[in-house]
Amino acid sequence: RAPRRYVLCEVVSEDPRCRQCIEDRAVGLAVRDAIGRVHGDYGLACCSISFTVKYLNAYTGTVLLRCRKDSYRLLCSALPFVRQLESRGQRYPCCLRTLHVGGTIRTCQKFLIQYNRRQLLVLLQNCTNEEERQCIQKSLLRCSLTEEQSRSGDEEDDDGTE
């Protein structure tokens, strides 16, 4: 089995419609196009062997890309050259920001949780009034309580079914 790397990226765009309209196929095509432009046919062939979009969250703009270990540097160096995504006949200007490179999906998930927590803390510190601060704090509490309840509920279901 060939070793792989997972590249966690964020779609950065000023147009809010961009995130809602992107599809994994469009991201894959844009990344392949950028690799071809930057590294030519050789780089494209190296990266295309095991390249795939493993996860795409259109609401948060989070993208998880998989490639072979020996070609992840080619992939990462081409990501800044993605300037637009084309979906449903529309072109949306955007860029892909690399957040993390990991050996497993689980390490990328752990990083993403920590990254989102840091982003929420920054958002909390930048609040202009007490009402915004309380609203964000309530949202944070709801998220973590829901997460704990769903985890404990899943564990009970798993134990009960086996």
Topology:
Elements: E1 4-12, H1 16-21, H2 24-48, E2 52-57, E3 62-68, H3 72-78, E4 84-87, E5 90-93, E6 95-102, H4 105-125, H5 130-161
Antiparallel strand pairs: 1-3, 1-6, 2-3, 4-5
Helix pairs in contact: 2-3, 4-5
Protein name: Ribonuclease P/MRP protein subunit POP5
Family: Belongs to the eukaryotic/archaeal RNase P protein component 2 family.
GO molecular function: ribonuclease P RNA binding
Describe the protein in words.
This protein has a 4-stranded antiparallel sheet, sandwiched between helices. A two-stranded antiparallel sheet has the order 4-5. The longest helix has 32 residues, at 130-161. The protein is an alpha+beta fold and 162 residues long. Helix content is 56%, strand content 23%. The radius of gyration is 19 Å and the shape is globular. Helix 2 crosses helix 3 and helix 4 packs antiparallel against helix 5. The protein has 5 helices and 6 strands, in the order βααββαβββαα. It has helices at 16-21, 24-48, 72-78, 105-125, 130-161, and strands at 4-12, 52-57, 62-68, 84-87, 90-93, 95-102. The chain has 2 domains: 4-103; 111-152, no CATH class. A hairpin with a 2-residue loop joins strand 4 (84-87) and strand 5. Belongs to the eukaryotic/archaeal RNase P protein component 2 family. InterPro entries: Pop5/Rpp14/Rnp2-like (IPR002759), RNase_P/MRP_POP5 (IPR016819), Rnp2-like_sf (IPR038085). Its main location: nucleus. Keywords: Nucleus, rRNA processing, tRNA processing. One of its GO terms (cellular component) is nucleolus.
